[in-house]
Amino acid sequence: MKKALAGGLLALTLVGFGSAPSAQAAGEAAAKGVDFAGTVALSNCSGSVVRMPQSKADDPALVLSNGHCLESGFPTAGEVIVDQPSTRTFKLLDAKGAEKATLTASKVSYATMTDTDISLYQLTTSYGDIKKKYGIKALEIDDAHPVKGRDITVVSGYWKKTYTCKIDGFVYRLKEGEWTWKDSVRYTPACQTIGGTSGSPVIDHRTGKVTAVNNTGNEAGERCTLDNPCEVDRHGNVTVRKDINYAQETYGIVPCVGHDSKIDLGRKGCKLPRPAAARR
Fold first, then answer.
1. Which fold has domain 37-139+253-273?
2. Which residue, 23, 44, 113, 259, has most beta carbons within 10 Å?
3. Residue range 31-57: average pLDDT?
4. Which residues fall within 8 angstroms of residue 260, CB to CB, at 6 or more apart?
């Protein structure tokens, strides 16, 4: 998970470097019809305010990022977190990457690094209030599977920078250290995402919707180690692709979100991993 920034002097240096929007990056994003509106900056990662197709204006807003971006640290393999209190804050960005507001979480609604790498924070404010106060709409999560060959942009609220490429294909199993993710998105080489871009929404140019969440990449060409994920096919064959980066699909989140943005793992069509107690 090279895409999250650790604490300490290095992180402080990088935060300072990334504090001002890049006009060039903003221009590149605009040229593709994608901007920073609705994205957020976390203390160590990127994220976005997201809604489901069925979300209502008065529903509490949700922020999407990675499971490995949690303030409590990486969830272990097999661990699923549901409804954990949190007061984490997020810097909300406008279309040009300027900070518009600080949003506050009430809880971690859901988080895991098992099968996927996602976190969903519930905010203390609604989608309608964010739109009314700041003029910013939440990004919609597509309820359909990503499409190979589509043009995409990874939008980092942390760095206020974008990365544009295509979906190169899908990985049956992506393994990194103790974690394994299913049906991951592989980018073409142009998306050279860096530390701090963890949790960035991946926007499909054709739909304008969130199709995945950026999470990792192979840094040193190592095999299945931390910061060096490997691809495993249906027959167990392992492929290592140095300098290639990956994301986790998000369409599977949609069936799991019910009334008032509540995560309901028992809803029809919901296949997100459940806590161990619920699997017994």
1. Thrombin, subunit H (2.40.10)
2. 113
3. 94
4. 59, 60
